[in-house]
Amino acid sequence: MATFNGMNIIVMPGTPAAPSTIEYTAQDIVAVSISPFTGQQQVQDWQASFMEASVSLPALTNAQAQSWIAFLMALRGQANVFQLGDPLARSPRGSGLGAPLVDGAGQTGYAVALKGFTASAANVLLPGDWIQIGYRAYRTVAPASADGTGRLSLAIWPQLRESPNDGGVVILNNTQGLWRLAQNARKWSITAARVYGMQFEIREAI
To answer: What is the pLDDT of residues 4-23, one digit of tens each?
Structure first.
């Protein structure tokens, strides 16, 4: 069993290959106070974000369902974590030319400096593309092109979870983020046709 930052990572079953639906919710920690006299707004941006999702599986056979039930049991509610990616965004829309690496240690916030792209390559990443650094997945929010040395500054969401190591590998294909169940209770259904139904709520593991 792999671990990361003290969290046990449980492997998700491989069948079916993807959920039937994933409903994402993007959350930002921003407070707004409104004057009752003027309507003027005061905004406090806490520079923190996270992703939530509702995952539904297709109809499962008994054999498939037992693997998923065992997976949910192994998660022990919110105690353990797992990896999940976007099934319709397994590769970037941008060219992805090169072998990207983290460019510099100590980075924080909603941007990351990268190197190793093909020099002067345009649109190596486009809005909506995913990147993975370590066990964390981030989404590109603006187009990015490499300069003459193969470097770029990439605007991402959410913010960097940990400062990545200089030279850390950046994954562009089959990216996965780190998730945990949003609540401890897990449930599933069995129909008269002897198929299983399963749906669960998840939240980015922070």
So the answer is: 999 999 999 999 989 999 99
**Does pTM top 0.90 for this prediction?**
yes
Phi, psi at 117, each rounded to 5°: -75, 165
Query: Both tokens of residue 99?
Result: 């072998």
Give me the phi and psi of 53, to 5 degrees please. Answer: -160, 155
Contact in structure between 51 and 26 (CB atoms under 8 Å): yes
Question: What one-character DSSP code corresponds to residue 10?
Answer: P
Q: What is the dihedral of CA 71, 72, 73, 75, to 10 degrees?
A: 90
Average pLDDT rounded to a whole number, residues 96-112: 97
Report how far residue 132's alpha carbon sits from residue 122's, in angstroms, rounded to the nearest whole number. 20
74 alpha carbon, distance to own chain's centre? 21
